[in-house]
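Weekly structure sync - notes
Attendees: PM, LS, DV (DV joined late)
Agenda: review two folding runs queued last week.

Item 1: First target. Sequence and structure tokens pasted below for the record.
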Amino acid sequence: MNGSTISKFILLGFSCSHIAQLFLFVLVLACYTTALLGNFVIMVTVWSESKLLQSSMYFFLANLSFIDMSLGSLAAPKLVTDLLNSFSIISYGGCMVQLFGLHLFGGAEMFVLTLMAYDHCVAICHPLRYTSIMDRQRCFSLLIFCWTGAFIHSTIQIVVLAQLPFCGPNVLDNFFCDIPQVIKLACAEIYVVEILMLISGGLITLPNCLAVLVSYVIILASFCGRFGKGGRKALSTCSSHLTVVGLFFGPMVFVYLKPFSHSQVDKMASVFYMVVTPALNPLIYTLRNQEMKGAMGKLNHKCKLLLLHQRE
């Protein structure tokens, strides 16, 4: 482009057959719909049930649901329409907004999942002091810390990326703007920037992974010798959280904490943590949770009564 600044990127999406793209279209549409409805129901249920809202665990779960809705909405709607076309176009500004949102909500989810692990640890290891330790003021303070950390992380990523000149190729072999592919299009030496991005990603991912690991090591140690009915209930809650942690951190680590390379496997991993995981989280947290099921039943009953009153 003879040194001029590019104004848009071309997204190649998935290089697969038409039948495979139709399958992905149905999968992404179903997952996105499930993510929106499921997470919205969890948020409304928690906020409408005072008993759940007073619990730090469900307070954090409602925030996690908001993050999942936001993270899933960054790329899924565009991907649904793009799967019906051969390629897609996104503006430079739109690409930067998408990147900022990805790292903001992705970072916030990492922090909130770690915070939920800490909450489980306090509840199991210090049950008598739990309500005083995890009071509403501390929960708000910890949540503000999560969002502040995610905002700082995403701002650093965008500030570093905005310094790079883009004057040549503008084709991204992906279905959304992702930093590893965008950096490679820069008309400058990118080795130092790649290292900075790798360090930045590691500084937010590895400490959170270690914090979750330490929390559950402490929890397992506390279970030794006193595994009763309460222990089984706590283990069920922890297993749901560990499943969500594995589904989110696994693909994220695979994509971002390895040397800068790209393949079709990276695309599928990105689809998993951006589209599939937000849809699975509501199912994981509600299918085995009797309190959530009961609260949802109450909410459903209230909605039916409201409809009956309106008809009358």
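Item 2: Second target, run right after the first with the same settings.
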Amino acid sequence: MGPVCMVLLVYLLYTPCWWLTALYCLWLLLDWESHKQAGRRFECVRNWQAWTYMRDYFPIRLVKTCALSPDKNYIFGYHPHGIFCFGAFCNFGTEANGFSRKFPGITPYVATLSGNFLLPIARDYIMSAGVCPVTHDTLDFLLSSNGVGVAVVIAVGGAAEALSTSPGSYRVTLRNRKGFIRKAIKHGAALVPTFSFGESDTYSQVELAEDSWGRRLQTRLQKILGFAICLIKGCGLFSPDSWGIMPYARPITTVVGEPITVPQMSEPSPEVVDRYHTLYMEELQRLFDREKTRHGLKHTDTLLIQ
């Protein structure tokens, strides 16, 4: 959406409607910092009927395992990242599966790359759904200056995990990801492990060998751009048996686990961070093992935390 909108704005400069681009650029100048404080959230956008079509295409479900108190703040660790985080956006960025009814008093914010907010028009669109940049300033603002009942959803594995995504595999990049644990302890926000069964099945991907020049190029571009350039294959628009860029219609079930209470410490020691990081990994493993057979996996399927 972002590149298309950029081309459209440039095109309008050479038409009698040039003033539309000029007005938007003025608005962009005045509004440039809004996303750093979670932007403008519109419930009417989150409740669009279009999101139910997205939900039903896969389909996508949201499973609640326990109640969450609206008197606390939370960091939801979303696993796995998959290619496009369809489950995260549908369940937490929209009301297609009734998040507000299942978790009354909790306001979710889906954290994503700050680079997405450089794209004209698209930035306003995603802000209206409650999407925010995954930066220190924004997370600190949401967890300390926005009251209670805030849930920040972070796809912990990020771009690195996207590169290792393949159908039928259950690998999460987590063992060395401790920043979200440190952030939770700093603000006393409970940690909520969340696993999305089927998120990795929406696309096939050409996985390059770790020592190949292609994989080194992917890794290099990931570090420069902040997101992964994945060689994906989906299905065609009109036939599930043809090749295309549409995602496969595979069920995605997002299971929200039980919260892990953490102490509030402005400067947590590495030992404290490691303790709760280990506890979080153990709880995620238990969540996967407990729920896997209920959502299409075999008893022998295992979760690899790398």
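Discussion on item 2: The mean pLDDT is 90.
Action: LS to circulate a short write-up before next sync.
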